[in-house]
Fold this sequence. Notes:
mainly alpha
Amino acid sequence: xxxxxxxxxxxxxxxxxxxxxxxxxxxxxxxxxxxxxxxxxxxxxxxxxxxxxxxxxxxxxxxxxxxxxxxxxxxxxxxxxxxxxxxxxxxxxxxxxxxxxxxxxxxxxxxxxxxxxxxxxxxxxxxxxxxxxxxxxxxx
Length: 140
Ligand code: HEM
């Protein structure tokens, strides 16, 4: 498994493939996103960023699932449906600093732990996602 993980980045194997399952990573990503928003919806540590979201998280869940499927190297579901994600621009209405970034990552790490994703894979995924979350910062 470690060998395979090392191949991520040299584009021999994608996170999507490494997340496994009969249909590639689709089920894992779906479960990851469900857990992610369940944590955000219930853990007081994430209350500030939860408050940025709509009361009903159905659309947020669906969009993050579609985005992450493509972002991990699977089918480009989000792009096919909505076009270029323009993620940073889309997040400008929400004040995102270090605290908000860390709350987002906290939810994601909790979600990964709930899924028992292999430690080494989880760490690589977390590092990459941290890069995206940090890029979303739009205030000191
Ligand atoms: C860093 C802290 C972040 C905060 C506070 C945040 C917050 C939000 C909020 C409030 C929305 C709107 C949801 C709604 O409709 O109610 C949203 C949408 C979204 N976020 Fe984030 N987000 C963060 C980071 C990220 C990251 C790192 C990613 C991707 C890896 C991401 C992917 C998305 C996507 C795909 C959408 C849907 C965009 C659309 O409307 O089409 N977000 N986010």
